[in-house]
Amino acid sequence: MIELSNRIINDGGTPWAVGLESGAASGWPGTDWIEDIMLRTAGPAIYDKWVAHEIPWTHPQVKKAFEYFGQIVLNPKLVLGGITGALTTNFGDSPSALFTKPPQAFLHRQATFIQGFIRNQNPGLKPGVDYDVFPFPPMNLELGKGVPILVAGDVVNCFSKRPEVIKFAQFLISVEAQKIWARELGELSSNKNTDPTWFTNAITRKAWAILSTAKVSRYDGSDMMPTAVGAGSFWTGILDYVSGIPLDTVLETIEASATDAYSSK
Question: Which backbone phi and psi does 54 adopt, to 5 degrees?
């Protein structure tokens, strides 16, 4: 991926479109980078310890993940608009830079839901023809087990034990319901028995193949952390780091908030 980025630079282009702005939630797109990198450099066991705060945010593996992230986002040659562009560009607007003529950027890292933003802003584009997808590459081949996959999702909560409520919740994850989800809406399925031919969206079909064959997957780390960290100091820590605050200071600040948040769980 880095070699591809350098090739784009040598050809006179800018590789990455990065958008970290999201209103009050600004910074969250960067947390996904850190989570992907943690899975690939530290491995799933250390990832789990990190999410559970069994290792501190100042741990060398966490620092390494931030540094890898910084190799891209802090390099003005690699990111459209440089640091200012990354900090001020809305995450949903960011991928549109790939579809200008000529393209302002060529690569974007995001979950499959970003297609909704792409389609709304560029309705003429065809998935799998005008844009494509590849998984975030492995980074530590000694870990083995292929390419680990970072996932997130929607959660259905039942606030009643009435039979019809439980039956409806069960229906939502059934093959029947997920067939509608995949065929009519073009979204990923939560049922492992989904037939890949149901996906009418070529990108989602490829994402399903990547997801369903992954030997290692982990849920979005920030979503499993206490709110004060996962939707608080982690988000702001990303912005602070990209803004130029020393990494050690950023990690120490997150660690202080994590110590308080996990002790009060």
Answer: -90, -10
